[in-house]
């Protein structure tokens, strides 16, 4: 997280609520992966859905990253920012015919995750080069809603249907240049990553899929959200991944590219949401610290029960108390933290909500007609981009256009 003095300085300059992103930290996380997985076969495609701030994306583009896009809008944004079409993969699920056609026309590789879409592609775009997404049949993730493997999820083609997928692809002379799987977000067990790789590699035989150029093992690299949560031993995990992949390429008879699509790993830790407390309320058994943001601006605690570390920037040495840290939205569940021990919170204190760089702003909304906060992107402690919040008047004008 950006240091406390800097965060307070930025809050004073720009006001709150304010998202602050440390671009240098994001780049450090990007380069980490190349240290852990030491092969020139590695390609990292950032999962743009985690955070679509253009200044952050530009840093990743310049560092050589690719993009994992999940909607035509994300593809369009990546292209507009100058990401080469060959460095973008489109992994939408339940896409419409129009969306599919539109993205196919851009030349971006489309990752097909159902036999139904594959059949339609064989008819409408014979001869094209595509990727197939398989369900790795491994369940893992930081909660049930972010697990994407196994029978209960809507994602990917079943491994059992690999031969059927091959038959359909052949019927349209489709070239299967990549196979893909994504097990889930916030993977808790290294074994899950390795098992999913094994399961995908088991169907990736030269007899079945002889034209492969890459295998894509999705995202899911976890970062600690709690102080007492250990960091994964990515050096060891990277070594196992590299060995496994090299052995696969030997058997396959060709050096393929190995892709990963991290979102959280690159951007979660680089982000902070600064909010200001405006109301302290003593409700018999609970003390409520009410602040000037709310769950539409950082929904993970309400949506997933996710834990985000909260720091009292203004009173770090205060006597600890236990608080419900609530927002300004008309919903009882509008809490960033429940019964959280934190140094005494006073009215007008600034709080910093950590790990707010992934799936926070990008999942945001203007529910209750409160504009999303401003965003400041830092690199080496300098602000390289500032996006002001929409004003109430601009938001209302936008609503009235309907
Ligand atoms: C297909 C795909 N790839 C990559 C990701 C990124 O996941 P994470 O942010 O956990 O790395 C996701 C997110 O769920 C995804 O659905």
- Beginning-to-end CA distance, first to last residue: 39 Å
Secondary structural class: alpha/beta
Q: Which topology of the largest domain does CATH recognise?
A: TIM Barrel
- Shape estimate: globular
Distinct small molecules bound, one entry per kind? pyridoxal-5'-phosphate
Largest sheet: 9 strands, mixed
Total number of helices: 12
Q: In angstroms, what is the radius of gyration? A: 22 Å
Task: Looking at this protein, list some descriptive labels.
single chain, 402 residues, alpha/beta, TIM Barrel, Lyase, Ornithine Decarboxylase, Chain A, domain 1, nine-stranded mixed β-sheet, eight-stranded parallel beta barrel, 18 strands, 31% helix, 24% strand, binds pyridoxal-5'-phosphate
Would you mind describing this structure in some detail?
There is one protein chain. 43% of the residues are buried. The protein is globular. The protein is built from 12 helices and 18 strands. The protein has 2 domains: 37-267, TIM Barrel (Alpha-Beta Barrel), CATH 3.20.20.10; 271-400, Lyase, Ornithine Decarboxylase, Chain A, domain 1. Strand 4, helix 5 and strand 5 (109-112) form a beta-alpha-beta unit. Strands 1, 11, 12, 13, 14, 15, 16, 17 and 18 form a 9-stranded mixed sheet that branches. The protein has an 8-stranded parallel β-barrel with strand order 2-3-4-5-6-8-9-10, surrounded by 5 helices. The protein is an alpha/beta fold. The model has no long low-confidence stretch (mean pLDDT 96).
